Amino acid sequence: TATFNLIPFDYSLSVPGVTVQQGSTASQTITVTRLQGTAQLVTVAVGALPAGVTLTGGNSQSCTPTSGSCSVTFTYSAIASASTGSSSVSYTGTSSGIANKVGTFSLTVTAIPTFTININKPGTGSGTVTSSPVGINCGGTCSASFNQGTSVTLSAAASADSTFAGWSNGCSGTGTCIVSAAASPTATFNLIPFDYSLSVPG
């Protein structure tokens, strides 16, 4: 009697780490590689995620490494207020008749890039520069950071004893100043010069 046995199916998982920016999405491709035996369906499941991060699809996907390998792709979405930093996330690979394959990968949430606007206010007079969206009220707050991609509109208002002479250093004129990258615009306010009249009766 000659007995022949099938070589049991086995596989490995290649699971990279993921970096996702606040308010954005990122993809992770997990590769399933057949090590031996006849290929069969493999299901990969992702465990619990940190607060503020979700999967845009289900938490499990399947493929069969018929040609030697196959892959599944998960897409992660982080809300704008998700906490930054790295977390360890578990994964599990399952396939009929063999032990589960478990492990962890690193999921890192990074901050939205920002740019800073600094307001300069030379001149002999006084006034206030404000921003939309809020952040600058100069006055007291003459520097603020905004998320990359934000268009910031700066408005200047002179005090009662002053006039707004205009913008310089990146903006011009006396209207609003629109900024969408790091800048240090100058708003010049000048005192209204004293003048007077005489009333001289006969």
Shape: rod-shaped
Q: How many DSSP E strands?
A: 17
Major β-sheet annotation: 5 strands, mixed
Uncertain residue ranges: none
* Widest sheet: strand ordering: 2-9-8-4-6
The ordered H/E elements are EEEEEEEEEEEEEEEEE
Q: What percentage of the residues does DSSP assign to strands (E)? A: over 45%
Give the averaged pLDDT, no decimals: 95
Radius of gyration, CA atoms, in whole angstroms: 31 Å
Question: Helical amount among residues, as a percent range?
Answer: under 10%
What structural category characterises the helix and strand content? mainly beta
Total helices: the number is: 0
Distance between the termini: 143 Å
Q: Overview of this structure, please?
A:
The chain is built from no helices and 17 strands. Helices cover 0% and strands 53% of the residues. It has 202 residues and is mostly beta strands.
Secondary structure topology:
Blueprint (H helix, E strand, L loop, with lengths): L9 E5 L3 E4 L3 E12 L5 E5 L6 E3 L4 E4 L5 E10 L6 E11 L2 E13 L3 E5 L8 E6 L4 E2 L4 E5 L4 E7 L3 E7 L8 E3 L6 E6 L11
Parallel strand pairs: 2-9
Antiparallel strand pairs: 1-3, 3-7, 4-6, 4-8, 5-7, 8-9, 10-13, 11-12, 11-14, 14-16, 15-17
Core attributes:
202 residues; mainly beta; 0% helix; 17 strands; 53% strand; 4-stranded antiparallel β-sheet
